[in-house]
Amino acid sequence: MKKTAVKNKAPKNKLLKTELEFIDLNNFKKGIDVSHHQGAIDWDKVSKVVIPNEPIRFVYIKTTEGATISDLKAETNAKEAKRVGLPFGYYHFAFPENKEGDAVTEAKYFIAALRKLPKPTLAKAYVLDLEKNKDALKKADYLQWILAFIAEFETYSTEPLIIYGGPSFLNDNLPSTHTLGNYPLWLAHYQTQKPTLPVGWTEWLMWQWSEKGSVNGIAGNVDLNWASPDFSFSKDKHK
Q: How many other C-beta atoms can be found within 10 angstroms of the C-beta atom of residue 87?
């Protein structure tokens, strides 16, 4: 997107990383996403972290995967993020299968989990994480799965889902004529100074630029994200 274009010359603020050598940091927001893979997180330390020039401003928390797996750290992570004042949202790791009603089943599972968790504090609070196509669904069928999930989820929230995915995966699994570009994009693209947009989108809301970040308070690697200046922190509405 125009507002998030990488500059040709080094700006005054620089993030010195192999994945991202120069990017204009003005008005951007740094965030992380976490799951049980990060283990026990010291949220007091996380809330005080300043990764060159920019504190962590938001977090997305894994909630569910497929139709049977709930992240065991979701509730703890949400309560702790809220306690330390970090705006947070939730994501569902999709596991599309070639069986009737699968997308609706997954959406209902996600919704049921959300009803038991603290209400998120981010405006765009919910994410559909697209990384798998185990049953090798055809592009048209994969798109229909996503649309069915979205339709069911919209019975719960008035806020449009964020679509998460990498450019190669989305291009490989969606028809070029899809209309998902109407939904905000969380783009996963590493080891590049300029992320590639998948077909159908003209801008990104968030860019996950590293999966190997280091943050005080979290043992091991954690995903690092930039959010565009359009990213909002106001509360969502629920049905």
A: 22
How close are the terminal C-alpha atoms of the chain, in Å?
A: 32
Please, are residues 162 and 196 in contact by the beta-carbon 8 Å criterion? no
Q: What is the rounded CA–CA span in Å between residue 163 and residue 187?
A: 8
- Is 33 in the active site? yes
* Distance of alpha carbon 102 from the chain centroid: 22
- Catalytic (active site) residue 211: no
Residue 15 within a domain: no
Helix (H) or strand (E) holding 207: strand 206-213
Calpha distance 3→214 (Å, rounded): 27
Q: Which of 131, 135, 141, 230 is catalytic?
A: 131
pTM of whole model > 0.85?
yes
Percentage of the chain beyond pLDDT 90 is: 77
Single-letter residue type at 103: A
Give a yes or no: residue 72 inside a domain: yes
Backbone dihedral angles phi then psi of residue 59, each to the nearest 5 degrees: -145, 140
Does 210 map to a domain? Answer: yes
Instruction: Enter the tokens of residue 194.
Output: 């300029």
Amino acid at 93: F
Split into its structural domains, the chain has a count of 1
By residue range, what is the domain housing residue 192? 28-227
pLDDT above 70: residue 36 = yes
- What CATH code is carried by the domain that includes residue 141? 3.20.20.80
